[in-house]
Amino acid sequence: MILIGLGSSLPFCGRAPQDVIELAFRALDACFGVVRRSGLHQFPAWPDPADPPFVNAAAILRPGPGPTEVLAGLHAVEAAFGRRRERRNAPRTLDLDLLAYGPILQAGPPVLPHPGLEVRDFVLTPLAEIAPEFRSPRSGRMVKEMLAQVTA
């Protein structure tokens, strides 16, 4: 199961972040095939809540290319949406994270599962909609268990 996290906190081409996410779902479907997608969720920016809030979502992609190729494709989609990597965790038009690639556990690149997968509510909340039974290859915990611990 290929799990992707989506986020947007800045408009792109006059489109609000929620519209950017909807367009990103379409781009992901065209590139990889989206099997399932979550709804949209708004969260404060992390790590600086003074930055614009994020709209977050998650998707399951159709099995296909390996993790390195998926990551390269995600970076290409981000670039098409005006993503700039000027500083870490800055507000951005589109953020696409490869959260997990099935049971693969690797130190990188890319790091799998994503280092923030188990501890960030803005990742786990949309993921719980589409893959609540997914188990992290790192801890063996299911998404719903991780989310319960983060929100407790």
Description:
32% of the residues lie in helices and 19% in strands. The chain has four helices and five strands; from the N terminus they run E-H-E-E-E-H-E-H-H. Strands 1, 2, 3, 4 and 5 form a five-stranded antiparallel beta sheet that branches. The mean pLDDT is 94. By secondary structure, the protein is α+β, with helices and mostly antiparallel strands.
Features:
single chain; 152 residues; alpha+beta; five-stranded antiparallel β-sheet; 32% helix
Question: What does this entry show, briefly?
Answer:
By secondary structure, the protein is α+β, with helices and mostly antiparallel strands. The protein has helices spanning 17-31, 67-80, 121-130, 143-151, and strands at 2-8, 34-37, 41-43, 54-61, 95-101.
N-to-C span? 27 Å
Number of helices: 4
| Total number of strands | 5
Helix and strand pattern: EHEEEHEHH
Instruction: Decide which structural class fits the backbone.
Output: alpha+beta
- As a percent range, the share of strand residues is 15-25%
Identify the overall geometry. Answer: globular
Poorly predicted residue ranges: none
Instruction: Output mean pLDDT.
Output: 94
Overall radius of gyration: 14 Å
Helix-strand blueprint:
Elements: E1 2-8, H1 17-31, E2 34-37, E3 41-43, E4 54-61, H2 67-80, E5 95-101, H3 121-130, H4 143-151
Antiparallel strand pairs: 1-4, 1-5, 2-4, 3-4
